[in-house]
Specification:
The chain is an alpha/beta fold. It has twelve helices and 16 strands. Helix 4 packs parallel to helix 5, helix 6 runs parallel beside helix 7 and helix 11 crosses helix 12.
Amino acid sequence: MKRLLAIIMTATLLFSAAACGGSNSGSTPSSSAATSGGDSNSGDAATEAFVIGGLGPLTGAAASYGISVKQGAEVAVKEINDAGGVTAGDITYTFELNFQDDEHSEDKVITAYNTLMDSGIDVLMGAVTSGPTIAVSSLSHEDGVLMITPSGSAIQCTQYDNAFRICFTDPLQGVTMANFAKDELGLSKVAVIYNNSDEYSSGMKDAFVEQANDIGLEVVANEAFTEGDVDFSTQLTTINNTDAEAIFCPVYYEAASYITKQASDRGMSLQFLGCDGWDGVLGQVTDATPLEGSIILSPFLAADPAAKDFVTAYEAAYGSTPDQFAADGYDAIYTIKAALEQAGTKDKAALIAAMTEIEVVGTTGTFTFTAEGEPDKQAKYIIIKDGEYTAY
């Protein structure tokens, strides 16, 4: 019995010493110490998770956009965390990304948004496309959460003071491309094909047509189609019977691939002018010949030396070259980082207020934000040449 009691007492003392982990013990910190950034007596900042909720299409016809944004964001999250996280006040935050598939659906995005809010997110990155972004904008405003859409370009996407965007607006793209057609390309007559069931496409078309009228650029055909259409023979026949010198096509990449292919099959050689929704179109076709010479507007070009580090990291992670949407996702994360640092806290109201006080040096340019949620940055014109995106 004496020997047994001695063994028990010795074991108890050893266990207590190990649990206390004296300063010279060399033991691994307990889970609570590791979570708070190390030894509680070290004076280091505490560490907490900062959860970024993402919304975008990971399946369906617009999946390329959502996947690109998600992957670009993941590259940024990894870089930031590998560099030690983000310190705001007395706390160092580790970024976590919770990305939900909204299938480019205004109905399904509501469910996805509620899932994110129920999980306890700190900031909303999304949605990726305009319709779903508009659908959740009022909800995010009611919840008082900072919403940054990487690529929702319709005007209504930033209608509330908690909402900001990384991309250009639809009207700005429409006006810019009308000026480009008239002043840079020297065109006098153009045709338009657009999706009248999509805010992105119709908003850009309206701005283009209005600006064209103001500057003396004649719109000789204004042809509409509906979401899901794949046969554009009627619209192209109408345009082919005009004296249009180019076709402005403010659509997403899937429709752009159909329209350009069918125009080529008809022997039409008109110049195509696109928008940022065309980014990714080369990945949708097996033959890029019908796209040759098309000019699109975009804030990002992978061949730009300023984007080299991001492109290298993205290619290493995913084995493909990033497009504009991946760059938008990447820049959205770094924008959140800048806002958190400026606010000095993850308080939702403070994060929103910080957005107009920051400057972001991103892959899509160096930019600040207006109180209306708009980024102030330069656009790039990109021509598809020899099957590649090239600076115009």
